[in-house]
Here is the input.
Amino acid sequence: MPGAEGGSGDPGNGLRAALSGLTTRGRSFLAAGVAAAVCAYVLGQPDLLRVGLLLAALPLVCVVVLYRTRYRVAGGRRLAPSRVPAMAEARVFLRVDNVSRIPTGMLMLQDRVPYVLGPRPRFVLDRVEPGGHREVSYRVRSDLRGRYPLGPLQLRLTDPFGMCELTRSFSAFDTLTVVPKVTPLPPVRLAGEASGYGDSRTRALSLAGEDDVIPRGYRHGDDLRRVHWRSTAKYGELMVRREEQPHKARCTVLLDTRREAFYGAGPDSAFEWAVSGAASVAAHMLERGFSVRLLMDNGSTVPGPDGAGGFGGNDSSDAAGVLLDTLAVVDHSEELGAGLSLAHDVLRAGSEGLLVAFLGELDEEQAAIVGRMRQRAGGAVAFVLAGSGWTSREAGPYPAVPPGGAPAPGEQDDEDGAQRSVRMLREAGWTVLPVSAGDGLAELWQRADRYRSREEAGAR
Here is the structure.
């Protein structure tokens, strides 16, 4: 049996390990045989002694035969797919190959999975012929995002009489990534965004003069008419003018992960709604040709600063995969008291395009910091998840709104604070949408566009 998944090996690690694999039936036979042999010796019954020796020898013979049997088994696992959204199912395929020259006995196949993915799967495999294989599959599902290890795969080998069982584990693991649920969003035109390659975009290189041209090294297939002779003479190698490239539209998605800003936990909590919303907006903007950057309240960015200034590259599918993998494991930030100032410092370092923020509860200080972020963005949309519609600190996992629909005692101040934060953001130029439990992101996305159009009409 393999010592590593996908390889092969021997089932025995020693006779002592084989003896420890005696089943309840095997131990019972051994105990009965020993007891019968003792009684036969005391009573002087040779026939009973032969029966006792037979009962005691049978499980020991099974142990030796199982230990001496040189099964060589290879196993593997395949996930389809390896990345799934929350509340969706994935299928796991297991394969066992008999790479020895003798058939195997009955095998029990077991795979270890975290309890959040469902019960531990077990399969009984009949005799596998030499060179043959068996394939089985099972389904896993999780309502919570995250990365979940699958494995190791275990095989339990038994003798025909059920006297002994040997369990061997493969060494390899696989990882199932459960990403946040992505909601399809309707195409709208928000303030600060523009088509990534439209005619209205600034073409920086086309406006540059002869002295401002930034050449690059010659590549096979370049047109010789684009050779920049002055740079060729300066650097001593063939240099060509760069092709005219449009300025790609940018979008920054800000996710507030402060622990004190969100109350409650579970798939229906405000924080999970914010994570799913950030994933949906990032995927939507990547599909529209934007370079998207994910920014956390602690100042960390995805992709990192060494990749196109922190923005995603040209391959939207790869960029979406990186963002979703990051959001699959994002948790509350550990920086206590830092607030959103670190994120503001990152935004202050450069000029942004569209800024979309998913924010929790804001006090006046944090609302003022978020308000200043608007100065570096062409357009800014904020989804604020605060108020009595979400779970509260006192209510735990249950809604804070009583059946009558009125705010619970002591929560009116929280409502007033949320309204003040919304007003401060709107005065700073943000398009703000308060989010309550049960609201759909697609409808709020369209509402943001209507609010923007109304604000522009009022400004005229």
Summary: Confidence is low (pLDDT under 50) at residues 1-12, 194-212, 305-309, 392-411. The chain has ten helices and 18 strands. The radius of gyration is 33 Å.
